[in-house]
Amino acid sequence: MTYMNGPLSFSLENPIDYGGVVGAPAKAGTPxxxxxxxxxxxxxxxxxxxxxxxxxxxxxxxxxxxxGYAAFLAGKIAITDIIYIQGAxxxxxxxxxxxxxxxxxxxxxxxxxxxxxxxxxxxxxxQYNF
Length: 130
Hints:
Number of strands: 11
Helix content: under 10%
Strand content: over 45%
Number of helices: 0
Low-confidence stretches: none
Mean pLDDT: 79
Structural class: mainly beta
Order of helices and strands: EEEEEEEEEEE
Largest sheet: 8 strands, antiparallel
Number of domains: 1
């Protein structure tokens, strides 16, 4: 479900769990909440977004969950009609599946299970410049 009003949008969506939880089977949690602002002015365009989701596991004898979140900022400036400078910075804490190529291939794990059975969020920060 998405609500849009001009350059601002909010969504409730099925959470992405490509990377799951290291050391235990991930289980479906609450929907992911996302908010995004995207706009442009002349030769400058920009976007910012945040999201939050529940990261959970359940082995049948033990379970735990934590709230993961992620954010990004991106911008693009036209130098000429064919030359652009653009870049983005991404941050995720317990929501690495939402950050492109955060893991060994396309998505990293969102959390790991420690010796006490706690689901601990994994942090990921990336910067892309083109």
